[in-house]
Specification:
single chain; Rossmann fold; four-stranded mixed sheet; 45% helix; globular
């Protein structure tokens, strides 16, 4: 069978985008979008990719001349769909640890305008050992600083050659934090006031990305996929159909970077807080509210939750009767987003393990569920029953013993499962459950202790009227009657 480079044509275009990160996500999200913009608008720009760490796949990308295939699979309008697209927007991939001179010369490109990055959540971080003369610097922000300083020098401080940064790292205010570190390096490296002023000409946008990218498919699927597309491709990249990119900026770059014009789900805004809140409390919140109960009930993947009538009814009750009513904003728009989320959860191509979602569930509950719970109380002057039950299910999930190597061991029937969280949190639960026999009194003691830990929740939750009593009643019922029976009562199917 022929290779992709024998079938798909490379296209020479100006390199308008510098991208730190060559992994699956950026290729199936950003580069896929740029390829569509090239087809449907006058953008006419390619991406030069920079491998951000020493170990990467730049050699594989170069071997395929930047070409690869994106395979989108999922459920739309209740039917399973698949979309195949050969992407040609990457012109080349540079490993700066081996090709530093080639990398730094990219700063001299007058066509360069946008910088995209996904260097993982830990990528936008400070490294005190980085120096301007390093080739390259270790940290991503230090690399950016050195790159910008070379561009500033080469173009003699011309503000028209400033760049637009759109980080995709999964941290809040990612653009603001990147700029903060660049300015810190500029000051510590004594790069001068003029350069620091020029940095203000660069636009460091904040962004929110939303697409589940599953990457290279399981090896047993590959031959059939190659047969379907008609060529071999060692960089196949699979993802769900849904995509959303929210970019927060005080400037309007939509004409210059015409993704929206190309029909893509890209939102330019001067305040992304609504979109971030919507994603955290609806998409992430649906996971965190339902997963502890669903796992203890006996399920293992998110898709199974959608197909189980009891868990699905509980998930919908959380979303449509409690989470969305607790939120500000257009309720119809929130409901539409929640419907799309449930459709995404039903994707048969994504095996999202419930146990992986339970990692660090205490902090997830604080950011994803607690605002909905307390917001519902403030708006309705009563407790949200389903979210109170989810709180009890969370506490029940953390019932474990044998804390060893940072893992607490829980039991589901005859099976053992790992409980993973901050060491102090696991120690607290291990101590709380050490002498629990399952009585109502035990439930009250455990719940009071958990709700009173302000360091976990940012406040003493036992101060909310009836919250402690309600959660304790649910926890006791879980111990005595089991998850299925209590869930049936919560959703009105008892």
């Amino acid at each position: 069978m022929r290779s992709i480079i024998d079938v798909v044509q490379t296209v020479q275009r100006p390199e308008k985008v510098l991208q730190y990160g060559e992994g699956n996500f950026l290729r199936a999200f950003v580069d896929w979008q740029i390829d569509i913009a090239n087809e449907k608008t006058d953008f006419n720009g390619n991406v030069v990719v920079v491998q951000p760490i020493e170990q990467g796949i730049s050699d594989m990308i170069q071997a395929q001349k930047g070409l690869y295939t994106v395979i989108l699979r999922g459920v739309k309008a209740s039917t399973t769909q698949e979309e195949l697209k050969a992407v040609s927007s990457i012109s080349r991939c540079i490993n700066p640890f081996l090709q530093f001179d080639e990398y730094i010369r990219c700063s001299e490109n007058p066509d360069l305008r946008f910088v995209i990055s996904n260097t993982t959540e830990a990528g936008i971080a400070y490294n005190a050992d980085d120096r301007l003369e390093d080739k390259p610097q270790r940290s991503f922000p230090a690399k950016v600083t050195a790159f910008l300083f070379r561009r500033f020098q080469y173009f003699h401080g011309d503000s028209s050659k400033a760049l637009v940064f759109i980080p995709c790292e999964l941290i809040d205010k990612n653009g603001d934090k990147l700029k903060e570190l660049v300015e810190r390096y500029a000051a510590e490296w004594h790069l001068g006031d003029t350069f620091c002023s020029w940095l203000d000409s660069c636009d460091f946008c904040n962004s929110l990305v939303d697409r589940i990218v599953t990457g290279y498919p399981p090896k047993e699927e590959v031959p059939a996929l190659w047969e379907k597309i008609g060529y071999t491709d060692s960089l196949l990249d699979t993802a769900e159909l849904f995509h959303l990119w929210v970019i927060e900026t005080k400037c309007d770059h939509s004409a210059e970077f015409p993704l929206t014009k190309a029909g893509l789900n890209v939102i330019w805004t001067d305040d992304m807080s609504f979109y971030r809140t919507r994603k955290v409390r609806i998409l992430n919140g649906a996971h965190t509210a339902s997963v502890p109960a669903a796992f203890q009930y006996g399920l293992n993947t998110v898709e199974e939750c959608i197909h189980d009538p009891l868990i699905f009814a509980f998930m919908k009750k959380c979303l449509f009767e409690e989470i969305i009513p607790s939120m500000d904003g257009d309720q119809a728009q929130l409901i539409q987003y929640a419907d799309a989320v449930l459709e995404r959860f039903a994707n048969p191509y994504i095996k999202h393990q419930l146990l992986s979602i339970t990692l660090n569930s205490i902090s997830k509950f604080k950011t994803r569920i607690l605002p909905s719970l307390t917001g519902f109380v403030k708006k309705n002057k009563k407790l949200p029953v389903a979210l109170c039950f989810s709180f009890a299910a969370l506490i029940a999930f953390y019932r474990g013993k044998n804390l060893k190597d940072g893992v607490l061991t829980g039991e589901r029937g005859t099976e053992s499962y790992p409980i993973r969280d901050d060491a102090d949190i696991l120690k607290t639960f291990a101590a709380l459950y050490e002498n629990v026999s399952g009585t109502q009194k035990d439930a009250q003691r455990v719940v009071h202790s958990v709700l009173s830990i302000e360091a976990w929740w940012g406040e003493d939750l036992s101060a909310y009227a009836d919250l402690e009593e309600t959660v304790a009643q649910f926890l006791s019922a879980l111990w005595q009657d089991g998850v299925k029976n209590v869930l049936a009562t919560v959703v009105g199917q008892a």
